[in-house]
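input
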Amino acid sequence: MSLRSAHRILGQETVQMQSYCPSRYVSRRRSSRVVAVGEIDVGGDNPIRIQSMTTTPTQDVEATVRQSIELAEAGCEIVRITAQNLSAARDLEVIARRIRAAKITVPLVADIHFLPSAAMEAARHVEKVRINPGNYADRKRFAVIEYSDELYESELQRLYETFSPIVKRCREFGRAMRIGTNHGSLSDRIMNRYGDTPLGMVESALEFIRICETHGFKDIILSMKSSNPKVMIEAYRLVVKRMDDEGMRYPLHLGVTEAGDGEDARIKSAIGIAGLLLDGLGDTIRVSLTEDPIHELPVARDLAEKAEALWSRRAGVGTARSAPDSIDPYTYSRRESEPVHLASGCRAGGDQPPRIIVTSPHPPTAVEAIVNAVAEAHAKLKEIRIEGLILNLEEVTELDAIKDLILSLKSEVGFLVLDLGPGISPESFSLLPSEKSGLGIVLLRKFSSASIHQLPGMHQFARQNGLHLAADLSPDPEAALEKIPDDHDCTDLIFTLSSPAHGSHPTGSYRLLAEGLRGRRCTAPIWIRNTPQNAVTCREWFGDRLLEASTLTGSLLCDGIGDLISIETEPDLARATSLAYNILQGARARVSKTEYVACPSCGRTLFDLQSTTRKVRERTSHLKGVTIAIMGCIVNGPGEMADADFGYVGGAPGKVNLYVGKDCVEVHIPESDAVDKLVALVKKHGKWTDPPPH
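output
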């Protein structure tokens, strides 16, 4: 089968598009079978289980035992340990015995790649075995050939014969199994038939599940990981649809692999993991950070708590919230929208990247304080800029201050958004300068279903005076849209929501808005607002605000929804702006800096990933639009670098291999020289620019 044929199959899967989850508007948990992992049950009505993985060499038994106990005591419910060879698999016996002697009952998982013999040994000692279909008993040479049906069937028979022994061993010892597909390590056979696609990931896993079922083995947990949240989300949705078609109800392990470190890794993890949890998918999760694994746990716990809070809010939800919407959830496509010209050189919608808006920390009358705050933020932000600034306007008397701000900020921001209090008449704005002043003006007004009749007149007034209108249709976008006259042209409006629709979560509410606009054949831009009201749980610390904003904005961007975004929960202008840009980068919606794909480290890692990642960042972080993969070993290296321009991969102890895309171009470089060699490689391929002066 050709790649084109595979894509046709994927297209056919979208006929019943929303069957991957009970509702895309309300969080209803997917029903799955329960799988016991030692003393922990996963799936069914059990809580979302939190996982992590040791980063110590497995042969260092003392260190691995110590880190496993530390993770368990910090709340990790399942601990994974790499078993990269038969010797490491044998060490699991001592590790497990020592952990149990410490009165720690946390289930242990053996992480297996390549070696069936290691899997067979590990299954004797731990509660679960993780198998990567792309690396287990399958060829991975990236040979470009077309598999005939006969050859493909013979490969499946070979796979059956090689994989069956570990299935029987797990059944014999009462072990669970995770079939964990990685986007970066699909087999040669899968790559040639399905390509480097979510469909290929799904088919790779299903082949292994079908073999398990022929042996009556169903203690399976499934994962579909990628470093690209869009690919990851599409793959999980598609595998659930495929499992439903075949009567399978296996629980899901969620994770964004190779997410990296710091804020960027937390953003990507929230986009991918929380985006699926919102749809009721996910039974156990791991947040993969290139940091001490103890730091993964609070992030995972926060995401789990938010999802479980949403899952519990099911009472009183109407059947309309279960109706399917029109998007294809298995293939990314940006929602079509007409661009709105906000100011000179600044448009929103169409083919423009999502525009970024932040909220002024001061009232409109504090002109000097606002100007200083914007200037200070831009000094911190360096190359990225505030594009839109929200000002809360409560009194008509504040308009004189707005005129002063227009003069002072016209070279600093693209447009002002004036959030109008209920007593402000739009006619008051006829004396404001239009966009010809160099600064666009957007009037933001909330319209309920009772006041929506005012929208056409206010919209016409804005047009006549060179202004723009953003309509907030909270809390019932469906009812409000139905009352806008059919003959009113809404194209150059901007639609938004400051609070969720009744009976829906924030992401679902924006999906309702997008569907309502589609029903009107309206292609007006949509503005995603991260407000306190649009938060699942509102906690006053930056880490939580980061997760909330990443969840709402990121999940919508991965659905193709969103032409403007605002972080209104963060009072610091520089922080709010950088967070917005980072979320756009994490969702692959707007590139503003270097992108890093970095694995979280494990016992296979051939160098210190944390310090190496820092060194690579120090030399390359100014390379806007370049993606660099930093991999501790070859397990997921070549494949996961499908999205990377350059790769820095552990090849042997103290030695590094360098890649351009999937091609290894230099091998066994001493680690002390590797970063310099990487920089030279970037320069050789014309991707280098000198860093700006400090």
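quick obs: Residues 354-586 form a domain with the TIM Barrel fold (CATH 3.20.20.20).
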